[in-house]
Structures are given as structure tokens and as C-alpha cells.
Design a protein that fits this description.
Strand content: 25-35%
Structural class: mainly beta
Shape: globular
Distance between the termini: 30 Å
């Protein structure tokens, strides 16, 4: 199972997904509140309860996507949506990148994404896909969350996020 050992321990402890305010730019900071299961993202000696996937410890209740065009400081917010492809995006995000650094021609017209995953305990973690820079992927990892470069997103992950917008 992709989501580790986290999840809602007490069915009464479930919280509704929060409304996400898209950040001004492509960043993983500022959209990562800690809920009841956030401690599972912290590595503790001798703990077997640590999530097997560093993105989010529990069952995902919502995924919000913020889309931007441009690059660097000249990025422009385009639109925001709540994805209906929760399981597909989570599965792809955990394995949908490869080691490497961006080494391609800049694509300032490409659409890049901030993706916010929320679980049923109120924990949220964010990852970014920078299509203007060869699909560079970063994520908020741990507790407290720290922006971490993961590598280059696969075209499949980018396509899943892009196509997760339902009309």
C-alpha cells in the first residue's frame, strides 16, 4: 500500500479538507499545515510507524492544484482546481520522478503546478512540477516541512496533474 501506516486512527478525528490559497509562485512552503498524523513524517529512532512515503502519512482526502505560466519571478497564476484523481496522482507522485537536474531549453510558456495533498487528519504537504525547467520536481518533506528537490518529474505525472482538472 502506498500510503504507509498513517491514516485516521479515530474516525471521529477526521477533518474536512481546507480551502487552499495558491501561493504567489512555484513553492512548496506556506501550504503545509500539520494535522494529527504529521508526526509520522518525522523519522524517529526505533519507530516502525514512520510513513513509507515521505509526501503525506495518511489517506489522501483532497488534492488541490494551482497552475502557473512563465518562469522565475515572472510566473503568472492561471487557475486552481480540486482534483478528482486522488489515488492516481498520489501513486504517481511517489514514484513519478527520476534523479537528475534540469538541462533543457527554458520553456516560459509551459504550465507549471503546485499540488497540495491533504489527509483526513488535517496534514497537508505540497509538491511542485516546474514544466518551464524540464519538469523539475520539489516537495515539502518532513515535519516541519522543508522544501526538497526530488528530481525530474515523469511526463506521466505531469500529464496526470494537468488532466486532473474536470470541467
Amino acid at each position: 500500500m502506498l500510503r504507509g501506516t498513517g491514516g485516521t486512527r479515530d474516525p471521529g478525528a477526521r477533518v474536512e479538507p481546507r480551502a487552499v490559497t495558491c501561493p504567489d509562485g512555484l513553492t512548496t512552503t506556506g501550504t503545509n499545515p500539520d494535522g494529527a498524523d504529521a508526526g509520522l513524517l518525522r523519522e524517529e529512532p526505533g519507530s516502525s510507524a514512520l510513513a513509507t512515503v515521505p509526501l503525506i502519512p495518511g489517506q489522501v482526502s483532497a488534492i488541490d492544484v494551482c497552475a502557473y505560466t512563465g518562469q522565475g519571478d515572472s510566473r503568472t497564476f492561471v487557475e486552481q482546481w480540486r482534483s478528482q484523481s486522488v489515488v492516481n496522482i498520489l501513486a504517481a507522485a511517489t514514484t513519478g520522478y527520476r534523479d537528475g537536474m534540469a538541462d533543457c531549453e527554458p520553456r516560459p510558456g509551459a504550465t507549471s503546478y503546485v499540488v497540495v495533498l491533504q489527509d483526513f487528519t488535517g496534514t497537508a504537504r505540497t509538491f511542485t512540477l516546474d514544466a518551464a525547467a524540464c519538469g523539475a520536481m520539489s516537495a515539502a518533506i518532513g515535519t516541519p516541512p522543508e522544501e526538497t528537490y526530488l528530481g525530474l518529474a515523469t511526463p506521466e505525472l505531469v500529464r496526470l496533474v494537468r488532466d486532473s482538472r474536470t470541467p
